[in-house]
Specification:
Elements: H1 14-18, H2 26-48, H3 58-76, H4 82-105, H5 107-114, E1 118-122, E2 125-126, H6 128-134, H7 138-147, E3 156-161, E4 167-171
Antiparallel strand pairs: 1-2, 1-3, 3-4
Helix pairs in contact: 2-3, 2-4, 3-4, 4-5
Length: about 190
């Protein structure tokens, strides 16, 4: 079918809106293309390792976004074949595996591509430079701590922002006191 021009577009043309210029049978082909691309995506995620299913590093996230961009074109456009999308999948997998391999061999390269762990709290005191570098406000820090059931900074011996974006918290042993992180409008809190 030839593409439509501006003067041929009719508002509420449901065939054009829902199917476009492709013949209706192309919907069956879209189903087949989607199934093939979905299987390729599942296999590629499996090949890239278990980390792709959990918290992602920066390079893994970049690959996932790239894979998402590859998916749309081969699934939906009738003039594009699946081979181009599958080739792009293979290149992305190779690139991600290569970055992981080089990162294992070189800690400097790993720090550049995956980031470093940052200490956000040390002995109950927020580390202002680390918070600023990580672009985390005090309110965000307090929210992260409250999500872990912590009510004051004195409970925290160390808090790290891991390279993958997770936080690790090590609590002080014993009963330490420090700045309250419970919002001031909360008059009573029950943590049991």
């Amino acid at each position: 079918m030839e593409p439509r021009f501006r003067d041929e577009i009719v508002l509420w043309d449901w065939h054009r809106i829902l199917i476009g210029d492709a013949p209706a049978i192309f919907l069956v082909e879209v189903f087949i293309r989607t199934a093939v691309i979905y299987l390729c995506l599942v296999v590629s995620i499996r090949i890239m390792g278990k980390r792709m299913g959990g918290m992602l590093s920066l390079s893994e996230l970049a690959v996932m976004i790239t894979l998402g961009a590859f998916v749309a074109v081969p699934m939906q456009l009738q003039d594009r074949g699946l081979l181009f999308g599958i080739t792009a999948f293979m290149v992305a997998i190779f690139f991600q595996r290569g970055i992981s391999y080089i990162g294992i061999k070189s800690s400097k390269f790993e720090n550049i591509t995956k980031g470093r762990c940052k200490m956000l709290v040390k002995d109950g005191k927020p580390q202002k430079d680390a918070l600023k570098n990580a672009r985390i406000s005090k309110n965000q820090l307090f929210a992260l701590l409250r999500n872990e059931g912590i009510t004051h900074l004195g409970e925290v011996k160390r808090m790290y922002l891991e390279a993958a974006g997770m936080v690790s918290i090590y609590k002080n042993k014993g009963n330490s006191t420090g700045q309250s992180i419970v919002p001031s409008q909360t008059t009573k809190i029950n943590l049991t």
